[in-house]
Design brief:
By secondary structure, this protein is an alpha+beta fold. The protein has eleven helices and 23 strands. The chain binds zinc ion (ZN). Zinc ion (ZN) binds next to helix 3.
């Protein structure tokens, strides 16, 4: 067993990867890797240019006899996620990654490895440097700042690339082909509310719902997990109506791309109703525990005494906020008709916050079909407007709708079958990939995303499987030799 990275097979890929690990490249600090890519291109004699967005584009002519093949764009991203263990002293802007061989894997000492997407870049450079591989006209697109919002892909201009096929080398399960992804859209609804003095016999309580699993608002949205904001709204709707409870403030959820795990509210319960209200809290907890059996295990709901606030929302304001929140669509909206079990369009009601006369509701919508995403956005807008909210959308980007008749998919399924004696898994992801964004300015590209097996990307435990890199390379080069003619 080789313990030196540069001696692993295929050595043309690992040698490039080793060099890449020595170039610091956390997102936003990408000048060094850009210079490295341009310098390497000059050394191996291929054309290189930097676009206005900071992406690097490489071009290589077809190998002899392959000139009439469709042009292929090889795509990877140049940046990496800088994560380290707490006790590790490491400066991602200065220090080379300490990569090493650990059994069947390559990993790094106490930091992310950057195989995501350093292996993609290494494969591209190995293809570009090869004098023996068979391939048609080639381009490479190495994008900047993918990990922090896909800025390079967003700012990529149309007309820069000529290829008809794009092979994205940023997937993390060898043997799987990704043929679709979701676009996104941020929606924010703002409701004004009025308050009045909290006069009367009130018991102030801090009502808290927590212990839900949460998760990724895209790839885990179909798992039926509880949304803390909506589960709390459901209870508050009943409490306002049945116990004369008054709302002071509400705060739930966090990041737009996370299913909310916790939500809380400050409420005023008529003192005469406190015992009955606490009984209702217990009952609701039992109800949720039963409803979510097998999905959520640790739901916590309690109401504890807190300081008496000076003001409370008017009844009308609180009712409008709770009804709007509870009526707001959430979760899976449609499933893909072409791919079994795949979510096509969804929304995550990620956050509710009330502050100084303003309640804000945040949603993140996702879809592989932009028109359907906009239709869902209009539906949420309609509900929120009925509640008197002002609705704004921002940060929209396109998805990539799976095309099961894609020519490159047929080529790559056949190639995999021939090389490995079995069919690859073909799937899509209900989250954003650069492919979706790139397709905005290059709508006719035939795209596929694949890569070697990488475990725990974005964490200090990141590791890439050595044998899967060999299969990935074999598969990539075989695919390039079988690209259909124009
Ligand atoms: Zn990546």
């Amino acid at each position: 067993m080789n313990t030196q990275i540069e001696q692993l097979e295929p050595c043309e890929v690992w040698a490039q990867f080793k060099k890449i690990t020595h170039v610091p490249r956390p997102s936003g600090h990408e000048e060094a890797i850009r210079n490295f890519l341009i310098h390497t291109a000059q050394e191996i004699g291929v054309e290189a240019l930097r676009d206005e967005a900071g992406n690097i584009i490489l071009r290589k002519a077809a190998s002899p006899g392959m000139e009439s093949c469709k042009g292929v764009i090889l795509q990877a991203h140049m940046d990496m996620v800088p994560q380290k263990n707490r006790d590790k002293r490491f400066d991602f802007v200065q220090d080379p990654i300490q990569a090493y061989v650990d059994g069947e894997w390559v990993t790094a000492d106490g930091t992310t490895l950057g195989a995501d997407d350093g292996i993609g870049i290494a494969a591209i450079l190995a293809v570009m440097a090869s004098k023996t591989l068979k391939h048609g006209p080639l381009e490479a697109l190495i994008t900047s700042s993918e990990e922090t919002g896909m800025e390079g892909a967003r700012l990529l201009k149309g007309g820069l690339l000529q290829g008809e096929i794009l092979l994205n080398l940023d997937s993390e399960s060898e043997g799987e082909l990704c043929v679709g992804c979701a676009g996104g859209l941020d929606l924010t609804a703002t409701l004004n509310y009025t308050t009045e003095p909290a006069a009367g016999a009130w018991s102030p309580l801090h009502l808290e719902l927590k212990g839900l699993k949460g998760g990724h608002s895209g790839v885990e949205i179909h798992l039926g997990r509880g949304n803390a904001n909506l589960l709390l709204a459901r209870f508050l709707k009943m409490a306002l109506e049945q116990y004369g409870v008054r709302l002071v403030a509400m705060d739930g959820g966090g990041l737009r791309n996370a299913i909310p795990r916790e939500a809380s509210a400050v409420i005023l319960v008529p003192t005469s109703q406190v015992a009955a209200f606490q009984e209702a809290v217990k009952q609701y907890h039992a109800t949720l525990t039963e409803e979510y059996q097998g999905i959520e295990e640790g739901i916590v709901l309690h109401a504890t005494p807190c300081e008496l606030p000076q003001a409370m929302m008017t009844e009308a304001s609180a009712e409008r906020i709770i009804n709007t929140l509870y009526g707001c669509p959430n979760g899976v909206y449609t499933m893909s008709p072409s791919m079994a079990g795949m979510v096509q369009t969804s929304t995550n009601l990620s956050r509710i916050i009330t502050h100084e006369g303003e309640a804000q509701i945040f949603c993140l919508l996702r879809s592989s079909i932009t028109s359907e995403k906009l239709a869902l956005s209009a539906k949420i807008d309609a509900v929120c407007r009925l509640g008197g909210a002002k609705v704004e959308t921002s940060g929209g980007y396109d998805g990539w709708n799976p095309n099961m008749n894609s020519p490159i998919l047929h080529t790559m399924v056949a190639s995999y079958q021939t090389l490995f004696g079995k069919a690859p898994i073909v799937g899509a992801i209900h989250a954003g990939l650069e492919c979706g964004i790139i397709s905005t300015n290059y709508p006719s590209l035939d795209m596929i995303s694949f890569g070697p097996t990488i475990c725990h990307p974005h964490s200090p435990d990141e590791k890439v499987n050595i044998a899967s890199v060999a299969r990935f390379w074999h598969y990539l080069t075989d695919t390039l030799s079988h690209i259909p003619v124009k």
